[in-house]
């Protein structure tokens, strides 16, 4: 990874922009496999393969409440034993009873 970063350091701004767009599309393609993001893409008529950085400003900011509302029903916190860091505060992502 460090070699790739060092190589990219000397690339033109256009080449860096192309790399960033390609990486963004790859991340969005992976995100589109999840129902929340799939629905979001449909709502805003944004397609991961053609999404640009400017399109991202149309998405709502992801909050803890949105995460809790869209938490998968079949997710077992006990089987995962994982918590996620969100900013400074550590929050367990458990579906309210």
Structure, explained:
With 97 residues, this protein is mainly alpha-helical. It has 6 helices and 2 strands; from the N terminus they run H-H-H-H-H-H-E-E. Strands 1-2 form a two-stranded antiparallel ribbon. A hairpin with a 2-residue loop joins strand 1 (84-86) and strand 2. It starts with a helix and ends in a 6-residue tail after the last strand.
Keywords, separated by commas or semicolons:
single chain; 97 residues; mainly alpha; two-stranded antiparallel sheet; 6 helices; 52% helix
In brief:
With about 100 residues, the chain is mostly helical.
The coarse overall form would be elongated
Strand content: 5-15%
Helix content: 40-55%
**Strand segment count:** 2
* Main β sheet profile: 2 strands, antiparallel
Order of H and E elements = HHHHHHEE
Strand order of the largest sheet: 1-2
- Mean pLDDT value: 78
Q: Which consecutive residue ranges, at least 5 long each, have pLDDT under 50? A: none
The rounded Rg comes to 17 Å
Number of domains: 2
Main structural class: mainly alpha
Number of helices: 6
Distance between the termini: 43 Å
Question: What is the topological layout?
Answer:
Blueprint: H1 2-8, H2 13-31, H3 35-44, H4 53-56, H5 64-69, H6 77-80, E1 84-86, E2 89-91
Antiparallel strand pairs: 1-2
């Amino acid at each position: 990874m460090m070699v790739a970063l060092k190589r990219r350091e000397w690339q033109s701004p256009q080449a860096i922009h192309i790399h960033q767009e390609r990486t963004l599309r790859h991340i969005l393609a992976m995100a589109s496999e999840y129902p929340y993001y799939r629905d979001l893409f449909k709502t805003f008529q944004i397609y991961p393969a053609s999404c640009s950085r400017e399109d991202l400003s149309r998405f709502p900011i992801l909050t803890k409440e949105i995460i809790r509302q869209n938490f998968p029903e079949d997710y077992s916190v006990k089987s995962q034993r994982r918590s996620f860091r969100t900013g400074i505060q550590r929050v367990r992502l458990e579906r309210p009873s």
